Amino acid sequence: MTKIPISFHKPEDIIRFVDIVNHYDYTIQLVSGNSVVDAKSIIGAFTVGSADDLEVQVQDRECQDLLENLAEYVCE
User: Fold this and answer.
1) DSSP 6
2) Are 8 and 68 in contact (CB under 8 A)?
3) 25 half-sphere exposure, CB direction, 13 A CA radius
4) Predicted confidence band at 60 (pLDDT cuts at 50, 70, 90)?
5) Model pTM greater than 0.85?
6) Which domain of life does the UniProt lineage start with (predicted)?
């Protein structure tokens, strides 16, 4: 499993994020505290998208292509 902290600055970021992750076959989740949602769901992503402790979890270790496309949302 790959875990990466991310953040969104505006609602359009969430829409773009969901569009990106929907192009991949990986199981991808957004996690904030005890809340876990399907990252490919626009409703789920908006549900947790404003959280300060947001993390994307990809159920695969070989997902560098996806991570490159999500680089703008990664928190350093």
Assistant:
1) B
2) no
3) 1
4) confident
5) yes
6) Bacteria
The residues near 20 (Cβ < 8 Å, ≥ 6 apart) are 66, 69, 70
Phi, psi for 69 (deg, rounded to 5): -75, -20
Distance separating alpha carbons of residues 75 and 38, to the nearest angstrom: 20
CA distance 47 to 59: 21
Phi, psi of 2 (to 5 degrees): -110, 130
For residue 42, CA distances in Å to 11, 14, 21, 71 come to 11, 8, 11, 19
